[in-house]
Design goal:
Largest sheet: 2 strands, antiparallel
Distance between the termini: 29 Å
Strand order of the largest sheet: 1-2
Helix content: over 70%
Shape: globular
């Protein structure tokens, strides 16, 4: 009878902890960016008028990391006090092993993000490191097990992780867009995990949600700091990884393979649609796919007369609506 009360307390603790840490760490990251001249200077593709500090992603990651450690200690204590029979989430050991590997790989993603924010790295080097990280994640079990052929699942999962990692990097072109979409998608992931009896995963997802919420006031509607590649790559990599875990959980829950696949595509519709559209345009125009332009969905809305803030809000609504449709499919 006390289980829901414990769950609600942990939910509140995780959201508040991650939010407050991120909210407090973001100004520190802002000052560091100014001190070391890690700034995004305006150009024809960008709407900001003055150099803006990067490294917002560093504050998000640190808030996420500290809260995750707190979460682990909290769960361990609760299981010790009440016993696993009373407060069991299922597959705890496997979950934490996967989490440890994800954190190690995230450190590499954060590292290349920071280096790229300080001094732009060659695209090929970034792609190489992302590919190595994706390879590690896939062959440790983070994959989309849709087909009966394991090597085909591994190949698709590899491109899925690399693609989504870069998708949010490409999507980070207007204030609040990447972080806001990530909050919406993660919230839908958490709801889906909870309603399909994976409470541990649902609780965990509150940590990145809170970390992003703490950063958002500094980035939307007016940006005092940007995510930088540190933040956008970490968000993309995290969502890619979480989606494979959720996919695997839903398949094991005897949900239809096709329902899981189509539902997942709906949950991630806006970032996937934006990325595929931009890549198609760049290929058609014989432009390198890694060179930025103003052909993103947000840019198209602005070209049609909308203010950037309204364009971002429309994409938020679009993501929420397609996400709800995705939930109805499962």
């Amino acid at each position: 009878m006390f289980y829901p009360l414990i769950l609600y307390k942990i939910t509140l603790l995780l959201l508040l902890s991650s939010f407050c840490l991120s909210y407090l760490l973001t100004p520190i990251a802002q000052n560091l960016a100014f001190r070391f001249n890690v700034l995004d200077t305006p150009n024809y593709r960008k709407i900001h008028k003055s150099p803006t500090p990067l490294l917002g992603g560093l504050a998000i990651f640190l808030a996420f990391l500290f809260t995750l450690v707190f979460f682990y200690l909290l769960i361990s204590y609760q299981l010790f006090i009440t016993g696993p029979a009373f407060f069991s989430f299922g597959e705890e050991k496997l979950f934490w092993l996967k989490m440890a590997l994800y954190l190690i790989c995230s450190l590499f993603i954060i590292l290349i993000g920071i280096l790229d924010d300080f001094k732009s790295l060659d695209f090929k080097l970034k792609l190489l490191i992302q590919s190595l990280v994706a390879f590690i994640m896939v062959f440790s079990g983070s994959r989309l097990n849709f087909f009966h052929l394991s090597y085909l699942n591994a190949l698709i999962s590899f491109f899925w992780i690399v693609g989504l990692t870069n998708s949010f990097n490409l999507l980070d072109n207007m204030n609040g867009l990447s972080s806001g979409l990530a909050i919406i998608i993660l919230s839908l992931f958490a709801f889906l995990a909870y309603t399909t009896h994976h409470a541990l995963f649902a609780l965990f997802l509150l940590i990145p949600i809170g970390s992003l919420l703490g950063f958002l006031p500094y980035n939307f509607p007016k940006a005092r700091i940007f995510l930088g590649d540190t933040g956008s790559l970490f968000i993309g990599f995290s969502l890619a990884t979480y989606s494979t875990w959720l996919f695997d959980h839903l398949i094991k829950s005897n949900t239809s393979h096709w329902a899981v696949l189509i539902g997942m595509l709906f949950l991630l519709f806006i970032p996937l649609c934006d990325t595929l559209t931009v890549i198609a345009i760049r290929i058609k125009k014989h432009h390198p796919i890694y060179v930025g332009d103003t052909n993103h969905l947000s840019h198209q809305l602005v070209k049609r007369g909308l203010a950037p803030t309204k364009a971002v809000l429309i994409l938020f609504m679009g993501s929420l609506l397609t996400g709800i449709l995705g939930l109805l499919i499962f």
